[in-house]
Design the sequence.
């Protein structure tokens, strides 16, 4: 049994780190996991994405055509991944950066104004945590506590003082009142 | 030691350090550069040698020089850089020296791209340099396996006095997975613990010369035979292969590295559909797991080779099964990793009995590919 | 006077660092002289057992048969890279390369420049005889303007084939190079000067000062189509004006060494 999660956005939105947190949390929870980025020129200012797989057995392909869940941090990511999500899967959209509503009606769509929530908490850089919180609420593949533990252990030392804000951002995303519809 | 989340390239570097790596020489090239970057601080921290060479040509010849002293030595690169290294690899083979090379393959030919590919198969497995020689080729399909194989690659290189290549594609180099590191081995002291052939300065002994020159053909032939006999031992002792779901399989998928793990996903999906298919994942590409494949050629109805190159391994599988069963091809090129559903489609085709001994499987695969472009 | 009163003194003998064997070099070739100078320096410094030579490709490919130290054999042009590998794992050993002009200044230009730029603590003996000797006298990067070779049969035309390379001058511009000089092997006085330069170059290495190179102007009577005497004269008259003898880089720490 495995769950595939794609996190996509612009470089600098913390896409890769959010994915790594998921992988750390999965590993620390005793599960198998892979994290694979799109690498190279794409890293430099353009779009960035990573695929995280969480499983209870040896993982085969580290990338899949139809992921179970997607966090789309911007419009290009929404356009690229919305059609690919497995029926019944989860799409988390950062509505702060997206000027259209998702079209699929066979998936769970979670819309969160990530940038605004992050800014209210003190920094736009927390947007990735807000959306990650939203994802884990809709797709409880791992408990928020596991992500918080991974944050405490793997947030770069220079950012450690921001741990409480990161926790807040995760919770804010998870608790965001919205119309989640199937 | 606990599992840690490691990026493939970094994990290989640390595994080499723990295997007693004494000197690393490399040159930046995506998608292996993290390996060089990691060792640029890790080696000096431990008082070991690190040089960012002027080119892959420089790097491989620094490896050549350091290997002459009996030191544990390694370089790493990616496809275009490995092409440049072919000269040095042939010389290392001709001088019967152990060394380790990590090739993190990318799309080609030419400059190609930096995406994962397996197009170096022939160059590495069948030897891209001049002359008669073999390199021992280890093909990990996960970060943990990359760690484990890198760790033993030096022992294998020294036991048989060959170059061991850890051959992976960019996706394994770039991906992160949990891996457990082996324990740190002590570094070999030189010249005290140098092998009996090493050139370390003729302190109180007869001087030694390491060279790949045998000007008289009979001497060269003798050297070639000596190298070949050692290689026969490798074939006898070192074949590695992992199989999945093969006990009752009526169809077999064959794939290594990333292609192998993509195939694993497809095999599981096919099993879920009731197709009795298994996976043979070669871990040593040279020596190739011939006996195992021959054995399965007597068990299955047909085989499917999955690779990220244009049927390079396909030819080895066909050579081994000798027409006893049809072998079909499922491949993607140019830096594209096949997705599990593509492989699943190909497995379904086998299950429908569409595999055939007629014609060449590459032609049929090309025909299917022409639908894409 | 009775015989027992005669006092014998050894004034000249084969260096221990030179093998007692016949070389494959042509009659009159100055490789033998250069080998002997290196061997004498290794003897004088008492470092034969701590020295590792790196042979190159060209006529001196078999230098390891004549110089009595541990040796490795490099691919064409790659001796500085190979020497780097040896030196980095055995920094207390003396490591030298012995390279010709085709090897060092043509196919190996990348490796030699990079090694010098890194300040690699190795010594390079560079033999310049203006042609590819081993393959039968083709044009080299050091072939003089107008000089006839088997691949410049009407004489090197600089408009077509470009200009000769003054390799030590080029290397001397690199901060990593501590000693870069040119000497000649065409007469006894110059041969003595050449030996002092080789000694100095190894002293540079002994002090960990970085890269040292000694270019030795040499003759190739066979491929030049001359007798050895004619060749020595030709060197003096034609090579030295283009390749002046001199010191192009001398680290201050060894500037006052005298031998």
Sequence:
């Amino acid at each position: 049994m495995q769950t595939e999660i794609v996190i996509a956005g612009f470089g600098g939105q913390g896409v890769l780190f959010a994915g790594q947190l998921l992988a750390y949390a999965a590993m620390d929870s005793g599960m198998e996991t892979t994290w694979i980025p799109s690498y190279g020129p794409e890293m430099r200012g353009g779009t960035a994405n990573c695929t995280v797989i969480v499983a209870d057995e040896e993982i085969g392909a580290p990338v899949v055509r139809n992921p179970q869940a997607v966090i789309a941090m911007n419009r290009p990511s929404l356009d690229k991944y919305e059609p690919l999500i497995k029926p019944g899967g989860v799409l988390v959209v950062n509505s702060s950066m997206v000027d259209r509503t998702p079209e699929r009606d066979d998936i769970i769509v979670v819309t969160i104004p990530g940038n605004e929530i992050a800014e209210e908490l003190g920094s736009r850089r927390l947007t990735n945590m807000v959306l990650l919180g939203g994802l884990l609420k809709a797709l409880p593949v791992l408990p928020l506590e596991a992500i918080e533990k991974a944050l405490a252990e793997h947030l770069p030392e220079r950012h450690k003082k921001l741990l409480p804000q990161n926790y807040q951002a995760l919770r804010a995303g998870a608790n965001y009142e919205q119309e989640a519809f199937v | 030691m606990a599992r840690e989340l490691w990026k493939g390239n970094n994990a290989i570097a640390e595994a080499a350090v723990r295997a007693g790596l004494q000197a690393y020489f490399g040159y930046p090239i995506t998608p292996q550069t993290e390996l060089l970057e990691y060792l640029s601080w890790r080696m000096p921290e431990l008082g070991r040698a690190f040089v960012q060479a002027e080119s892959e040509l420089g790097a491989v010849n620094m490896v050549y020089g350091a290997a002459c002293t009996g030191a544990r030595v390694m370089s790493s690169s990616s496809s275009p850089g490995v092409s440049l290294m072919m000269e040095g690899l042939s010389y290392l083979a001709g001088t019967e020296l152990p060394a380790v090379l990590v090739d993190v393959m990318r799309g080609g030919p030419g400059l190609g791209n930096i995406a994962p590919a397996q197009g170096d198969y022939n160059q590495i497995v069948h030897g891209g340099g001049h002359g008669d020689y073999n390199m021992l080729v280890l093909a990990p399909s996960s970060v943990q396996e990359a760690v484990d194989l890198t760790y033993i690659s030096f022992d294998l290189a020294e036991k048989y006095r060959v170059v061991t290549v850890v051959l992976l594609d960019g996706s394994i180099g770039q991906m992160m997975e949990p891996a457990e590191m082996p324990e740190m081995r002590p570094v070999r002291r030189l010249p005290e613990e140098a092998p009996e052939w090493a050139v370390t300065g003729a302190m109180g002994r007869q001087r030694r010369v390491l060279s790949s020159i045998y000007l008289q053909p009979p001497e060269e032939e003798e050297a070639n035979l000596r190298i070949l006999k050692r290689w026969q031992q490798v074939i006898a002792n070192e074949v590695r292969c992992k199989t999945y779901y093969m006990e009752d399989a009526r169809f077999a998928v064959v794939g290594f590295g990333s292609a192998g793990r993509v195939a694993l996903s497809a095999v599981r999906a096919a099993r879920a559909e009731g197709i009795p298919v298994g996976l043979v994942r070669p871990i040593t590409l040279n020596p190739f797991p011939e006996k195992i494949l021959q054995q399965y050629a007597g068990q299955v109805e047909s085989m499917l080779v999955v690779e990220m190159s244009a049927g390079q391994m396909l030819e080895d599988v066909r050579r081994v099964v000798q027409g006893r069963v049809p072998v079909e091809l499922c491949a993607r090129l140019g830096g594209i990793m096949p997705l599990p559903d593509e492989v699943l489609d190909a497995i379904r085709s086998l299950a429908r009995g569409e595999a055939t001994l007629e014609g060449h499987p590459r032609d049929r695969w090309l025909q299917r590919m022409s639908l894409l472009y | 006077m009775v015989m027992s009163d005669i006092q014998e003194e050894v004034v000249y003998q084969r260096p221990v660092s030179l093998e007692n064997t016949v070389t494959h070099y042509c009659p009159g070739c100055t490789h033998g002289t250069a080998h002997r100078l290196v061997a004498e320096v290794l003897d004088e410094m008492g470092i034969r057992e701590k020295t590792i030579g790196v042979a190159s490709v060209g006529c001196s490919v078999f230098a390891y048969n004549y110089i009595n130290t541990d040796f490795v054999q490099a691919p064409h042009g790659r001796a500085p890279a190979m020497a780097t590998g040896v030196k980095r794992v055995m920094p207390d050993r003396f490591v030298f390369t012995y390279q010709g002009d085709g090897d060092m200044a043509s196919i190996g230009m990348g490796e030699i420049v990079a090694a010098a730029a890194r300040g690699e603590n190795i010594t390079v003996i560079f033999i310049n005889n203006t042609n590819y000797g081993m393959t039968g006298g083709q044009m080299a990067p050091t072939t003089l303007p107008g000089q006839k070779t088997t691949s410049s049969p009407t004489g090197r035309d600089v408009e077509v084939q470009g200009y000769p390379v003054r390799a030590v001058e080029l290397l001397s511009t690199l901060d990593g190079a501590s000693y870069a000089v040119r000497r000649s092997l065409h007469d006894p006085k110059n041969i003595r000067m050449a030996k002092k330069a080789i000694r100095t170059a190894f002293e540079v290495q002994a002090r960990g000062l970085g890269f040292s190179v000694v270019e030795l102007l040499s003759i190739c009577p066979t491929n030049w189509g001359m007798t050895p005497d004619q060749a020595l004269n030709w060197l003096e008259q034609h090579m030295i004006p283009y390749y002046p003898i001199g010191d192009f880089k001398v680290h201050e720490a060894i500037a006052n060494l005298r031998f």
User: Anything to note?
Assistant: The two ends of chain B are 49 Å apart (CA to CA). The first strand of chain B starts at residue 4 and ends at 7. Chain B has a mean pLDDT of 97. DSSP finds 13 helices and 15 strands in chain B.
